[in-house]
Amino acid sequence: MRKMLSFIQKYMDRKSSIIELFILVLLETVMVILISSKTASLVNSIIDKVNVYFNLTVFLFVIAAYLVIRYTRAMLNKRIVTIYEKNIYEDVITRVSNASLLDIYKNGKGNVVSLLMNENSQIKTYIFYYLCDLAYQPFLFIWVFIYMCGIAPSFALIMTILMMTTIVISYFASKSLSKINNQRNEENAKRLTVQKEIFSNVITLKMYQNENYLSQKNEEASLDILNSSKKYIKRKSINYFPSLINEYLPVAIVVIGGVILYRNGSLSFGGFVAVLQLFTTVSLPMSKYAQTIVETKNTIETVKRLENTLFVIGKKEDIKSLDKIQENGKYAYEIKNLSFGYLDEFVLKDISLAIEKNQHIGIVGKTGAGKSTLLNILLGAITEYKGEVSFFGSNMKTLAQEDIWKHIAYVDQNKYLMNGTVAYNIFQDNVVDADNIEDILIRTNLNKDITKLEQGLDTVVANGGVNLSGGQKEKIAIGRALYKDADILIFDEPASALDEESEQRLIDTIDMCKFKTIIIVTHRKDMLEKCDKIFKVGEGKICEVTYDEITENL
Fold first, then answer.
1. Which residues are bridge partners to 410 per DSSP?
2. Quick one: which of 303, 481, 507, 528 is 20 to 30 A from 26 by CA?
3. Whole-angstrom Cα distance, residue 301 to residue 470?
4. What is the pLDDT of residues 291-315, one digit of tens each?
5. How many C-beta atoms lie closer than 10 Å to residue 312's C-beta?
6. Pairwise CA distance, residues 244 & 246, whole Å
7. End-to-end CA distance of the chain
8. What average pLDDT does the chain have?
């Protein structure tokens, strides 16, 4: 419990927020007792026709104070949820962006999505609906018990027995229902995964006449959730009867007992009204307290899962470079006896490689050979390798990623574009003169495309570029890399969607970069022809090959 509250409090802008919330909850329960007490006084004064206006004024004042406290508590609760959601999402995004690729691989993209969606949603729901109840219901029960002991001790004893019985019955009913509901949610998540798979690949599935696969997968998922829903409805129906008993039987017992005591003269009419009011006030929250306990246990487990994943994802502190980048050295990269693998499977085994400054290097290899892994090591995105990688003469593991990336421009296979204008995707928020803009557009052959776009460079890139062709996206990504004017340009299949003219323009541009170190993963003959050296990656090894040797197999 303490660990869960500490986790929530960690994402508050003020560490006292949770304590303030519980203080308001305590005050709210005190006001409930005061309302019942003043209700009794008001009812008795009306019957006796004594001090009616005074008691009415006090009663209304207490009601107003209660509403102010309740409103303040609700606003603070909402503020806590909002701040928690903002800060936890920022933390997760920061951790994921700072995490190494091996961290992401070990935890899986699904876990990251789960962090952002399922786990955080459950904690947020708990804070909003159950956190206050965790303190409110016990506080209320204690105050009501003390107050009723002063009015009618027998009622206090009856109330305690009834409340404990209610909590026990509700706890086992809620626990069973929660378990079935979790199973139903899991089955629903599986069905959503299946539907996403179907929608994402519907063209391929239909093209190869796999409609039966569609139907079978969907039917299996739907059948599982149907069975889970039946169990849930059945259990909820069974739980309906204990809930009826919990809600109505205790009230009936209190009413009957109160009438008997009132007729015997042991209880005033105002006292009877106060007892009935208090009991109905406390009975419903206490009948739901078992659900609060179940949700608390579930949330504690959720926090544990969330903390475990957060501990791995981006667990490293901000690293400052322990060494200086030696820009006057001979080599851009020196790799010695490097080995790396995901889990127990090695992708690269004891490789060595040297790339001189201003060399143009081509890298080839079959799919899955380790080309992208090698690039990620050169980028400094993967650091959990054996061996040594030097970057401009400095051990890469001693350098901060920010310092490495100042010297590198990268175009990946996916050609990621941000939701902004074309100009923003290339030049960011920098002020760029017209000549520089024109130069980038010509070198990427993007100048012709810009004239075809209705708003030119101010055209908004929607949802990662759905309103642009594959070639246009590729040119924008290349333009962004060229504009950075970094010492090293790394391209991963840069011409996969380019037309012949644009590809030739890119080849000419690369050829003109005499004072840049360029590393290209490609299978295009014309690009490889312009490279100073070509390396082939395969079976965990890397070796230098000639242009003629490679082109024979392309």
1. 490
2. 303
3. 44
4. 777 777 777 777 777 777 666 555 5
5. 16
6. 5
7. 62
8. 79
